């Protein structure tokens, strides 16, 4: 059962997420709590006021707490790095507690692919709408792409302190490497080519060879070289 401090921090997160426009279901998934618990917090008429407890005095003041929280929010720093940068005689556990006490910081796994921005989405939709009346011209268009599967798990499992008031961070994943399999194919109006399995790291000569052995024969069978 969470203590008073943990409960207060969790309630702060729930209320902040609600102000950001999150639904009960979204808050439930973000905080790994039941929807009924989230609903009780949001519909409670009286505020949660944890009782003060006796114990050791805090080793940090308000200014130090805010500095720690700013470093976690605005910089790509781990708890260990923040502990060293703070130049305070405090432990990693203390730093972690101060970050959580902010009410708007959660420790999450960083996304492995860059999400589409609103600008990307609008441009893609515009391109699709502009090409709806393309007609028979689509018969001369081919789309090719490659895909990689890791045989030994993901390339990385990187976590960071995410500020709920900001966009999620993400990083590019590797396109090729050990312990994985990579395939390439092409699709057109009249069908698709078989999968081409790519071995090793890809470079310009290897990719040119793929196009010669797979793309060119497919394009000739679906409408010529033009």
From TrEMBL:
It comes from the Eukaryota. GO terms for molecular function: nucleic acid binding. This is Transposable element Tc3 transposase. PANTHER family: TRANSPOSABLE ELEMENT TC3 TRANSPOSASE, TRANSPOSABLE ELEMENT-RELATED. The gene is tc3a_178.
